[in-house]
Amino acid sequence: MKIAVLPGDGIGPEIVAQAVKVLDVLRAEGAKIETETAPIGGAGYDAAGDPLPDATLKLAREADAVLLGAVGGPQYDALDRPLRPERGLLRIRKELNLFANLRPALLYPELASASSLKPDVVSGLDLMIVRELTGDVYFGQPRGIEVRSNPAGGSERVGFNTMLYAESEVRRVAHVAFGIAMKRGKKLCSVDKANVLECSELWKEVMIEVSKDYPEVELSHMYVDNAAMQLIRAPKQFDTMVTGNIFGDILSDAASMLSGSIGMLPSASLDENNKGMFEPIHGSAPDIAGKDMANPLATILSVAMMYRYTFADLSTADRIENAVKTVISQGLRTSDIWTDGTQKVSCSEMGDAVVKVL
Ligand code: IPM
Ligand code: MG
């Protein structure tokens, strides 16, 4: 199994290094894993003038799975849009056809007090958001900023994007979401804005159509504004959610906070054959980069998702997840999840602790 390791920017290299330690343990035990590292995002721009250098894309295409840290940083903000780190991330998702983005929000009981919500609202939370990742207003054409005449007889600049979904795009992510719901609580909530947007109207129709193939799954529909409210009000009503790219981007950040820290949550982005890219859902946190204080657990848990979804090795996935649970129950905390009475550790100490448990 070949894994392309793309650390990226900011805290990316530090957190990815901890996840690589976990892979090293598995390799030492005899797992046939090969890793190769390449730059992406700002690091790609620095190395090759491109946030997704050709060599990086080639490596990612040839690999069985991709492990990614994070991209972005203030030093790249002034670059032309196509050269910005985020473009590298969006392009690799599109180039590898990673249309199904799985973002779990799981609350570790010991971290209930780190959530900004009352413990009884979030305790036992176990939610999966399936976000469509290669369509929607993120990629729809036309898009741009141009000068247009205005009704007052003058002209001014307008910015525009196109929210667009083809039925086939909705259908394939629907199948992934129903499949996941089948393995979980058999409840799927499709989030849209069908009271306003045609794009959502079609989304909803296709969801209903696909639901006929999964009679055991209870499908419900919710408008995105209500879904945002319900996630904060009573998040445990949800089991599996499915939504488009932009709504999923926003809702998954909200959901992440329910679990105490965005530093705990992994993600998987899968293509039709379950080849995937695995990354923490948090960003590059430039403010703490290089200080060895970031939380590596989301990245380590991303390796667990790699084992679960791409390598279909559930026992190794469980084992990594259990090791993370153990270090949490041992009271070890990076500063983002630290509370009184627990032991503050650095990023690398947290990685070492997971390795020790493994
Ligand atoms: C995410 C991020 C990205 C997105 C950015 C960095 C382009 O917010 O993965 O959620 O909007 O998809
Ligand atoms: Mg986001």
Please describe what this structure looks like.
- The chain has 358 residues and is of the alpha/beta class.
- The chain folds into two domains: 1-103 and 262-358, Isopropylmalate Dehydrogenase (3-Layer(aba) Sandwich), CATH 3.40.718; 116-259, Isopropylmalate Dehydrogenase (3-Layer(aba) Sandwich).
- 40% of the residues lie in helices and 20% in strands.
- It contains twelve helices and 14 strands.
- The strands form three sheets. A ten-stranded mixed beta sheet has the order 2-1-3-12-11-4-5-10-8-9, with helices on both faces. A two-stranded antiparallel ribbon has the order 6-7. It has a two-stranded parallel ribbon with strand order 13-14.
- Strand 8, helix 7 and strand 9 form a beta-alpha-beta unit.
- It is globular and about 65 Å long.
- The two termini are 20 Å apart.
- The model has no long low-confidence stretch (mean pLDDT 96).
- It binds 3-isopropylmalic acid and magnesium ion.
- 3-isopropylmalic acid binds at residues 86, 89-90, 249.
- Its cofactor is Mn(2+); Mg(2+).
- It holds the Pfam family Iso_dh.
- It is found in: Cytoplasm.
Question: Descriptors for this entry?
Answer:
alpha/beta, cytoplasm, IsoPropMal-DH-like_dom, leucine biosynthesis, Isopropylmalate Dehydrogenase, 20% strand, binds magnesium ion, 358 residues, two-stranded antiparallel ribbon, ten-stranded mixed sheet, globular, binds 3-isopropylmalic acid, 12 helices, 2 domains
Summarize the structure.
The protein is α/β, with parallel strands linked by helices and 358 residues long. The protein is 40% helix and 20% strand.
